[in-house]
Design brief:
Length: about 400
């Protein structure tokens, strides 16, 4: 009987193609909107997770809390404390430095370029690999000897020297009031995706460079925060808790006086925000499903009226009330499910096309597709109950007399 009902439903849809399509349009738009919004949210989550993993998911900054009113100089850090932390925590730390960075003008001849200088240790490339194309990376001697050596990106090299291969070339810059000559020992290439490029903005004619963090962090000088990479992602929460407790105890503070700002937490916050926004906007878009469902109810009522004699004939031939009910419920569900399938293809296609244009791998979860089509069929059943019930309750004699 179910197969026969499905066959009759498709026959009725084909008999009124334009009317059926217009009826499905509300479902198509609703499901397409929901699929698009949810998939865009999932795609953005994937992009941000990729960005955070590139930054380093085990990375965190530790500093005295901004809420602490009675700050003192000893709440900040020194290079000796970095050494002690390395000795105490050993293999639990993949990397640690003073998170020193600054911006300054680099001058070569008559060319001046604004550079962002990131102070790093010699093993920073172990936690943040770079695509070094010329020269070498900073070494231990550069860091311990505070040598004025630089590893810069290709954009900065082109802007400052007019060529990518700038190894051996020098420039002047002023860091913390000291004018010095710096030598380029390496050049690396940054290859961000199109979305990252748009987020970072167009090339402003500047550059980025790594220099020994000891140049920006002198002995006996205090700095605000530690940049740390945990060695084990699986136990990083326990590690950072132990590290915070140690730092607080060494400075005569309570653990809650210090703040651990981790990339993992930021990633979780971003995912929650994106997920909440997708659900809110998706809920608004789902209202169009209600409109589509009302459209299905309306057209099914028209269909029941048009097929009154058919109902009378079927009942006179022995069709039961529940048979007529299932016939029209099946037709309503199929009409809605077809709209859901078309809406899914529309929404998924738009997301895929947008991802291809932006160079981003679009994420369309199969579970969301199945749920969307199934939900659209349920909408059809729900809004088809009244018309189907009306058809099933018709008196066969009265139905046969209907013209």
């Amino acid at each position: 009987m179910l197969v026969e009902n499905i066959r009759m439903a498709f026959f009725a849809i084909r008999a009124n193609k334009m009317r059926s399509f217009l009826t499905m349009l509300g479902i198509i738009i609703g499901i397409g909107s929901v699929i698009s919004i949810v998939s865009i949210g999932d795609t953005m989550k994937s992009v941000f997770e990729g960005l955070y993993r590139e930054i380093g998911v085990t990375q965190a900054y530790i500093s005295i809390g901004y809420w602490v009113d009675d700050r003192r100089q000893s709440d900040f850090f020194t290079l000796d404390e970095i050494t002690r932390v390395k000795e105490i925590f050993g293999d639990e730390i993949a990397y640690i430095d003073s998170s020193a960075n600054t911006s300054a003008d680099a001058i070569h001849g008559r060319t001046t370029v604004k550079f962002d200088f990131n102070g790093v240790d010699y093993n920073y490339q172990e936690v943040q690999p770079v695509n070094l194309i010329y020269g070498r990376y900073l070494n231990e001697g550069d860091v311990l000897g505070r040598r004025k050596n630089v590893v810069m990106d290709t954009a900065g090299a082109i802007n400052l020297f007019g060529a990518e291969d700038a190894v051996g070339k020098t420039f002047r810059t002023t860091l913390y009031g000291n004018v010095d000559e710096y030598t380029v020992v390496g050049v690396y290439r940054k290859e961000p995706g199109p979305l990252q490029a748009m987020m970072m903005g167009a090339d402003t004619g500047g550059g980025e460079a790594f220099i020994p963090y000891t140049i920006l962090t002198w002995p006996n000088d205090y700095f605000y925060s530690l940049r740390v990479f945990a060695a084990d992602e699986g136990h990083m929460d326990e590690f950072y808790s132990s590290l915070k407790n140690y730092i607080a105890k060494s400075k005569g503070r309570k653990p809650e006086d210090f703040r651990v700002s981790s990339v993992k937490d930021e990633m979780g916050n971003a995912n929650s925000l994106l997920g909440g926004m997708a659900m809110a906007v998706g809920g608004i878009a789902a209202i169009s499903l209600l409109v589509g469902g009302i459209g299905i109810m309306n057209i099914m009522l028209v269909s029941v009226t048009e097929r009154t004699r058919e109902i009378g004939i079927r009942k006179s031939l022995g069709a039961r009330t529940q048979d007529i009910l299932m016939q029209f419920l099946t037709e309503s569900a199929i009409l809605s499910a077809c709209g859901g399938a078309l809406g899914t293809m529309l929404g998924g296609g738009l997301v895929m096309a947008g991802g291809a244009v932006m160079g981003v791998a679009a994420v369309v979860r199969p579970g969301v597709v199945v749920l969307a089509v199934g939900f659209s069929a349920m909408v059809g059943v729900f809004f088809g109950i009244y018309p189907a019930s009306k058809a099933a309750k018709k008196d066969p004699i009265e139905a046969l007399r209907y013209e």
